[in-house]
Amino acid sequence: MFTMLRTTLALAMAASSTACLASDPVVAEFRGPGNGLAGSAGTNNKFGQSFTAETTADIGTIELSMRRNGASPVNLLVTIFETNSQGLPTGSPLGSATLPVTLTTEYEWYSIDFSQQPVAVSDGTRYAITVSSDPGDGGYLLQTATNNPYADGSGLVYLAGGPWELMADNFIYGIRDVLFAVLPAAS
């Protein structure tokens, strides 16, 4: 009886510690640490990040570390695109979602829910997250890390009148990546 109890307890402890070690599944992520910013108020300038999917899945949530850029609330739109050979957004959006809460003045992680319009991504394929806000609102600042520490994508910028470009040394913000996580839809 004692041996059976000890074996049952050992199995329960092993199962418990295994569950604690398992991490949440991700499609792709780069959580920092952050040491910079990129952001805008209105639709003239947009920012984003390309990423390479680590698995084939439907996107359920995108998480971004960001804060408000002004005193007014912000209406934020997050969109997913396929990318061209340079890793820049191309074609029609695969899907988009809005952030239904007001950003605070301090950096926080915010979840943008794509579960109502899941976007299918394929393992090893590069995609782009783009962020824009409404004209006249407070705008947003995305938390970034300098010198492109995320190897499977790049920070992106769209300046009024121009095409999407990689954030680079010739841009005011310099070379950097946006802090992000792309999480799969619940199955």
Give the tags.
187 residues, mainly beta, eight-stranded antiparallel β-sheet, six-stranded antiparallel β-sheet, disordered N terminus
Task: Give me the secondary-structure topology.
Blueprint: H1 2-21, E1 28-30, E2 36-40, E3 46-52, E4 57-68, E5 76-83, E6 89-99, E7 108-113, E8 119-121, E9 126-133, E10 140-146, E11 155-158, E12 164-166, E13 176-178, E14 180-184
Antiparallel strand pairs: 1-14, 2-10, 3-9, 3-11, 4-7, 4-8, 4-10, 4-14, 5-6, 5-9, 10-13, 11-12
Question: What features would you describe in this structure?
Answer:
By secondary structure, the chain is mostly beta strands. Helices cover 11% and strands 45% of the residues. The protein has one helix and 14 strands. The strands form two sheets. Strands 1, 2, 4, 7, 8, 10, 13 and 14 form an eight-stranded antiparallel sheet that branches. A hairpin with a 5-residue loop joins strand 11 and strand 12. It starts with a helix and ends with a strand. The relative contact order is 0.30.
How much helical structure, as a percent, in the residues?
10-25%
**How can the largest sheet be summarized?**
8 strands, antiparallel
* SSE order: HEEEEEEEEEEEEEE
Would you identify the regions where 5 or more consecutive residues have pLDDT less than 50?
Answer: 1-22
Which structural class matches the secondary elements? mainly beta
The radius of gyration over CA amounts to 19 Å
Count of distinct strands: 14
Overall pLDDT, averaged? 84
